[in-house]
Design brief:
Helix content: 25-40%
Number of helices: 13
Strand order of the largest sheet: 16-15-14-13-9-12-11-10-17
Distance between the termini: 9 Å
Order of helices and strands: HHHHEEEHEHEEHEHEHEHHEEEEEEEHHE
Strand content: 15-25%
Shape: globular
CATH architecture of one domain: 2-Layer Sandwich
CATH class of one domain: Alpha Beta
Number of strands: 17
Amino acid sequence: MLKKDAHNFADVTTPADEPSLPQSESAHDRATQSVFDRRTLLVQGGRGIAGALLASAATAGAQTASNPPVAPVDRGMVEGKKVEFPAIHADTDLPGGGPPNADPADTRVGFAVLGLGRLSLEEILPAFSACKHARVTALISGDDSKAKTIAAQYGIRSTYTYETMEQLRNNPEVQAVYIVTPNSTHREYTEAVARLGKHVLCEKPMTVSAADAEAMIEACNKAKVQLMVAYRIQYEHNNRYLMDMVRGGKLGTVRTIHAVNVQNQGAPDQWRQIRKLSGGGSLPDIGLYCLNTVRAVTGEEPVEITATTHSPADDPRFREVEDLVSFTLRFPSGIVASCTSCYSAHKHADLQVMGSDAVAHVADAFNYSGQKLTVSRRDGIAEVASEYTQNPSKQFALEIDHFAECIRSGKKPRTGGAEGLQDQKLMTAIYQAAQTGRPVQLPAMPGLDATRGPALPPLGLG
């Protein structure tokens, strides 16, 4: 947990605005005040606020003989281009998160955000402020007025419409494009962005069919650009730690998994309720979180799927798309996963993994925030539930930074095009099982993580 600094430097003003000390104050008071005088911050401005504070602390030590020197554990040290601090807590306590050590702003990978709907404005654009390796350098929208309004809010210099986005080709500040548009448009925009020589980060679901997904992969391969699907849960820390626990055998032998993701949709004319734009109802929108996360937790691919769907006949929200989908996945190891998505129930997101030795539970598993991992197991004569507390992770920032690092290094993303294509194939099988009322058998895929890129770095608690 981060603690507040001992001093609070607030309300920094210019010298002209600086109020003078009352005449009644002594020379000693004025000398003490000058140690952390606001003017010191301004004089040191070229070196940044952090530099000014360090310089002020050094001045204080020089002027006041009774002040002991600041220890390295408190001062920190510069290593390469990062500032690091030695551990301050005993081994019995969790370490702090440490400084973010972000890249200098002008060296970060530049992203254009294509599509300025709710998700972009409420989650994705704000997330860039937490990114260490990426920044927004352009916006693309069908509404030029909206694009310019948002650009002004964020200090973004370049805006384009869908008709003028061809000009991105000549913008060196944009290396990648984050596509955040209705599902059925993902193929069109991915192919267009690839032709411009820009890398593609595409929101999930990847598209509306396996054929479209294959075409997107081919387009990016032909253009020699990276393609990643934004499966944020695979980067969220609580879910990642659960994956590590399962793979490491900390729950014993996993027998079954339950995943639920439901919410109560409102307006029937929103694009997610229109099949031509969405490709389906709750399954490709929120049921996909259950499907993809269960696959990521086990590392396996299902060999059998059963499913059922239901939609109220008199509800205008479901004239074109399904409401509830319940599906079961059987994996080669014997694990059986039961998954449910629904568009007409009070919002709830939950993931449970039942092993022979312990049960793990992630509350709010698929939400944008609020995840909490709990593991229950026997301890002598008691059943003990351990809560794994981690620093909150900004999911969108984590996935964006991962893609930025892949662009720089040339390494394949963890959730590339093959991962999105596999989910498209499995969703097709889920609909088929629901329509026919019969199980769908699938060919076995040998090994773990057959459709994923290189593993992410080990995740420690912190």
